[in-house]
Amino acid sequence: MTVYEPIVPNPNWPKGFTFSPAVRVGNLVFLSGTTAGDEKGKIVGVGDIAAQTRYIFQKFAIILESLGGSLANIVETTDYYTTLEGYEKTADVRRELLKGPPWPAATGVQVAGLIRKDALIEIKAIAVL
Q: What residue numbers bound the domain in which 92 lies?
C-alpha cells in the first residue's frame, strides 16, 4: 500500500529515474533535490548561481501550482552549493520569488561537487498546502 502520492507534472519524466520530482503525504509536499537542468538535461545558467536558483524555484512553482499551491507554501529549503562565489545573490532571488516575510526555514551546505556537471546549486524543499 502506497502511503504517499508521487507528483510527476512532466509527462516526459524519464521512466528509469528512481525518484519522483515531489511526493505528497497529506498536506505536505516534499520537493526532491533539484538542479537547473532543462527538459534536455542541460544546465540553465552555466556559471551563474542566481540564474540556476531562479530556474530551480520555477520548477518548484510548476509542481506546487499543479497541486493548487505556490512558492508561498514552501516552509523549508536546503541548498547544496559548490561555491560561495555569487552565493549572496541567491538571497535576492529568494526575496523576489518567496515573497516573505515570513521566510521558510533554511539550511545551506557547501559541497565539493554535485552529480550534474555545471550545476552550482541543488535545492530541496518542503511545502505545506
A: 22-128
pTM of this structure: 0.94
φ/ψ of 89, rounded to 5, equals -70, -20
* Count of domains observed in the chain: 1
Classify the C-alpha dihedral 37-43-44-48 as positive or negative: positive
Q: What three-state secondary structure class fits 90? A: helix
Among the residues of the chain, which ranges form H helices? 49-66, 88-98
What residue type is 89 in one-letter code? K
For residue 122, which of 86, 87, 79, 88 has the smallest C-alpha distance?
A: 79
How far does Cα 121 stand from its chain's mean position?
Answer: 10
**In this predicted model, what pLDDT tens digit does every residue of 31-87 receive, in sequence order?**
999 999 998 889 999 999 999 999 999 999 999 999 999 999 999 999 999 999 999
Q: Amino acid letter at 107?
A: T
Residue 86's Cβ-count burial label (10 Å; 0-12, 13-18, 19+) is middle
Q: Is residue 15 part of a domain?
A: no
Query: 45's torsion region: left (phi>0), alpha (psi -120 to 50) or beta?
Result: left
